[in-house]
Amino acid sequence: MSSSLLLSSTLQEYKTKANTLHLAKDAYWQLLLHMNSGVSEIDDSSFFFSANGARDAEAELNATLDAFFSDEIKDDNSSICRFPARYAWFEEKLDAYDLPTASCPEYDKIFNRVDPKSVTFVFPSAHINSPASMFGHTFLRINSSYNSKLLSYAINYAANANMDTENGVIFAIKGLFGGYYGKYSLLPYYEKLKEYRDSEQRDIWEYDLNLTQEETVRMFRHIWELNGTYSYYYFFTENCSYNMLWFLEAARPKLQLRNKFLYQVTPLETVHVANEQGLIESTHYRPSKRTTLLKYEDLLNEKGIETIIKVMDNNTSVNLMLEAKNISLEQKRYLLEAGVEYLEYEYSRGKIQKERYLWLFHRLTSERSKLGITKDIKIKTPPNPLESHQALRVTLGGGVRDNEAIGYLGFRVAYHDLEDSNYGFLRGTQIEFGDILLSQQKDTTRLEKATIISIVSLAQRSAFFKSFSWRTKIGWDRNSLSEDAAFYGGVGAGYSWGNKLAYIYFLADPFFYVDKSFHTGVGGSVGFSIDKYEFMNTNFEFTQRIYDTSDTQALLKLSQGFRVSQNFQIMLKYDYKQRVQANTKNDESSLGLMLKYYY
Asked: Which residues, other chains included, contact 381 with Cβ-Cβ below 8 Å and sequence gap of 6+?
């Protein structure tokens, strides 16, 4: 019998066996195809051998076997080399150790370079001034036998949007409706650290997983199959974090990570679910450039910081800083160290030309080496995001409004507001989607609010960081001149300052309301938050509004929250709304006790 006939006979034998074993319905085969309810989430046709492979698991299985047994050249471009996870699975399930083989030098080279031993779940925390990054991000790091983790490789999935040029609002809209391709990539870990920790000012949390080396190799095979392919990116569902869950399940098939998420996936929630299923065994923290520079602000006096900034701006020389006799040796060490950190930060933002960067870097590091060894600065590890509250929230409350009893019932899809406990979250940030609150007073049920989206970024200004604060909100609430819930849209901007105890902020808020007619106006707000203590947080805000009808309105809200446990909060809240319309005064005061449960 000729070799071609023998191959054909063997191929048919394996197809028959696969059909008998119902392998096309096997959970792992469906996982390798990223199939959800019978349809693959991979939109790149190059990922499939069958024209209908994205919707027909059996057709794709048979087409894959056909490709493996075809007379294609068995090199790096062959189907066997491109799909090692499928190949290994067929060997196991079909007991098929006489499958055709191929020479895969490129795969072998990358495999040996990556040297997959174990896996770490990496969570870059929120970027306070970027709407696209305020949820945080997650990706995976494949650890090798090297001592330095910087030599490891990262698995990433991201939208093909250029955030340096992309408008934030356009990004949000396109991201909601799949307006971007999301691409899988395998790249050196130090590149991701440079991007998130240094350029984007994001602290990095690394969660080592208890995957075995065998499971890690299984994951790597699947990563190889997807590297460079694309699928449509959806901000709430098929996003960076959700796609990492496929890889974890490919490594350990018994995991059920994706089942928890039905209509929204946030990066922090994927870390929570990995922890709930016993994957996380240890945690490591890497402070960002921002965190490091803020620590140096605590160690340096104001004049020293001003000198560093002037050196960067080319308004003074390094010599003047070093020759100053009123600066102690320790302060000079801190000045030079902070100068290097600030130089790297400014260069990453494109604020310093490469030639000057290289010259200054050499000068500052050389001068620092002359001043002797000192102890490393101690940056306190902040609360672990794993210990923060989860995204979904149910609210039950009661109280008094205008001397009459009132009850409250609320539900929120995601994921954090300023009145929630700030433990484990980035200070001064809020992102809410789908927040609904109803009230019952006498026989009347009212909609208190129905927030579509609310984003707040209160970035405290400091010597090194001249950040601005902003917020935006779209939805329905009862803060207008009318007593009924009206559709609201607004965006505000201003500044915030703070210390370790609390922060204050001042914002100007242009807005519009739509009830029976369309109204515009502008508001000015002043507020503060006391958030130093783990067990409690205090929030106050006063707003004065002026409408296009010349009506004015004062709004005041005060809340005192108590963190009873990770996912349970008790909150006392007072609200005052001034309503003056057509010379009729109808002010409203509410005092309530709210019980909040997060899951």
From this structure: 285
